[in-house]
Amino acid sequence: MTGLRLSATLERMGDLARHVAQVARGRYPALALPEVARDLFDQVVEAVNAVANDVVNLLEGHDLNLASQVLADDDALDALHKETFRLMLAPSADVSGLSAQELVDITLLGRYFERFGDHGVSVARRIMFLVTGDPFVREEPLTTI
């Protein structure tokens, strides 16, 4: 059962990656993100790549400490997702020159990346259950059985 649920979660992660690619392709040859959002999204992409790499390694090795790392990576990604809203909604936000499409793209891309991280957490929790048989997620580092 864990394998079946993992496959559905991994499929959803792939769907979210496809959505990101569709946004980028739809704006080509222009960039999908306006200049004002690029630095923030560089950090978001770095955090998403950390989640993705950790998930791959977790699936290969079932390392419970790595599962805990996925949870921490997702926390960083969640904080960056909040920054996307601050970027657009803060009184000092420099978004007056952005088109409606650019604002929508920032919002959607932030959400796609945040959900990708959430699905990474789901994979980590399922692996933790698979290895330990314990249905309760622990956030402190664990040792492999």
Automatic annotation (TrEMBL):
One BP annotation, GO: intracellular phosphate ion homeostasis
Protein origin, superkingdom: Bacteria
Coiled coil (UniProt feature): none
Keyword S-adenosyl-L-methionine included in the entry's annotation: no
A Pfam family annotated for this UniProt entry: PhoU
Alphabetically ordered keywords of this record: Phosphate transport, Transport
Protein name: PhoU domain-containing protein
Span of domain PhoU: 46-127
